[in-house]
Amino acid sequence: MRFLLQITYNGAGFQGFQIQNEGRTVQYELERILKRMHKQFVRIHPSSRTDRGVHALCQYVHFDTHLNLTPEKWQHAFNSALPDDIYVTEVKRISEDFHSRYDCIGKAYRYKIYQGLHRDVMKTGIETYYPHELDLDLMNEAAQHFLGTHDFTSFCSAKTEIENKERTIYSFKVTKTPDGYDFHVIGSGFLYNMVRIMVQHLLDIGQGKKDGSETVAIIAARDRKVAGKTAPAEGLYLEKIYLTAEELEQDVPAGTKIIMKNHPKPLTTDPGML
């Protein structure tokens, strides 16, 4: 049997999602519980592998099991043993040919900054302090250059091991909030540090350090050195994972062409599994 977990977590206390040689990880906490229940190691498969300090409002993982438990009992088993900074919000039994990573067709990220005369220690680890004056129109104008399908080599970490750096951005908006700004981006997928590099690029434009019209040339250069610095991890949230085209179409501009990596598979083959 294959089960899908929808989880949320505060990334401030983790070295990232994926297991590391040292430090806490989200993957370890989940697999620790599965190992205790199965008396043997059970691998989980995430839709996304967030970096150190990055949060998730919605993340999916699936695992296979021979244990005959209902979704409600699985949810209770996890939440009664997980630390306070991870929570399982939903559990579904899914088709055994559905994969939470390979059948993910899109992701949404939100980057949150706050402003003010002083840094707020209560927001340490959950939002980024950026006290400089910003031009909202300039940032939104430049953000539109990211839309469409591009090679994002200039906007990903030099440590990125994936050879194909082509991704599609469906929507990118910067909005004013009561205490700062939110950067919201939806795409087919994202490379290592990609969102944080794009956000810092827009912040530099909003502050007047860069000319937004240069964004097109920076993308075309396919050179990490020309894109500038990387925004801190603490302000970044994995906000949504899209597993169906219908979900994605609701959040992107009307008429947007959705890129399907493979033939879509249903989450379940039997309504009774839910």
From TrEMBL:
Where exactly are the transmembrane stretches of this chain?
none
Any idea where the Pseudouridine synthase I TruA alpha/beta domain is? 9-103, 142-240
Cite a single GO MF annotation.
Answer: tRNA pseudouridine(38-40) synthase activity
Q: Name one GO biological process term.
A: tRNA pseudouridine synthesis
> Which EC numbers characterise this protein's activity in its record?
5.4.99.12
Its recorded reaction(s) are:
uridine(38/39/40) in tRNA = pseudouridine(38/39/40) in tRNA
Active site at: 51 (nucleophile)
Residue positions annotated to bind substrate are 109
Question: What are the entry keywords?
Answer: Isomerase, tRNA processing
InterPro entries, sorted = PsdUridine_synth_cat_dom_sf, PsdUridine_synth_TruA, PsdUridine_synth_TruA_a/b_dom, PsdUridine_synth_TruA_C, TruA/RsuA/RluB/E/F_N
Signal sequence segment: none
PANTHER family, alphabetically? PSEUDOURIDYLATE SYNTHASE, TRNA PSEUDOURIDINE SYNTHASE-LIKE 1
Tell me the protein family, please.
Belongs to the tRNA pseudouridine synthase TruA family.
Quaternary context: Homodimer.
The record's NCBIfam families line, in alphabetical order, gives:
hisT_truA (TIGR00071)
What's its job? Answer: Formation of pseudouridine at positions 38, 39 and 40 in the anticodon stem and loop of transfer RNAs.
What protein name is recorded for this chain?
Answer: tRNA pseudouridine synthase A
Q: Which organism is it from?
A: Macrococcus hajekii
Q: Which gene encodes it?
A: truA
